[in-house]
Amino acid sequence: MKQLVIFTTGGTIDKVYFDAASEFQVGHPVIGDLLKRMNVEFEVFVHQLMRVDSLDMTDVDRKAIQEAVENSDAEHILITHGTDGMVETATWLEDIRDKKIILTGALQPAAFAENDAVFNIGCAVGAIQAISAGVYIAMNGQIFRADEVVKNRVENKFESIPL
């Protein structure tokens, strides 16, 4: 892989805590700086599409993501996304051919000392170099085909759809 295009959309992975407001807000994307610190040996292009919690994501937002992926010349595309709407957004991308697309996110903000963001990003970056064209979700140490995964909200994890 010579280059990786990353589209960021917001979600927990980029959330920061503001003491004055006593709430989380989606901050600047963390993935570009993270990959730079990890000394990746390929070009990384980060494009912030939006700063939206996936619970607030609309079809207009999903259409913008779809168009950005379709219009990209890149073969390898990683999308950071909120976990609650990740599977739905992935379905918007299923008809895109000849691209390797992985969505990933986090259940805890990357800014937290204990988080799953770095692990999920690393898993996604490694997997995107080995998968065939299609749409995938990288969460909880697993790579799922986008049409074969659900988020189990009770256990707060992603899992394969039972056959």
From TrEMBL:
Pfam families named among the record's database cross-references: Asparaginase (PF00710)
Tell me one GO molecular function of this protein. asparaginase activity
PROSITE patterns for this protein: ASN_GLN_ASE_3
Which residues are involved in binding substrate? 54, 83-84
UniProt xrefs under Gene3D superfamilies: L-asparaginase, N-terminal domain
Name the domain of life this protein comes from.
Answer: Bacteria
Q: Where is the L-asparaginase N-terminal domain?
A: 4-155
- Which residues are named in the active-site annotation? 12
The protein here is known as Asparaginase
In its UniProt entry, the species of origin is given as: SAR92 clade bacterium
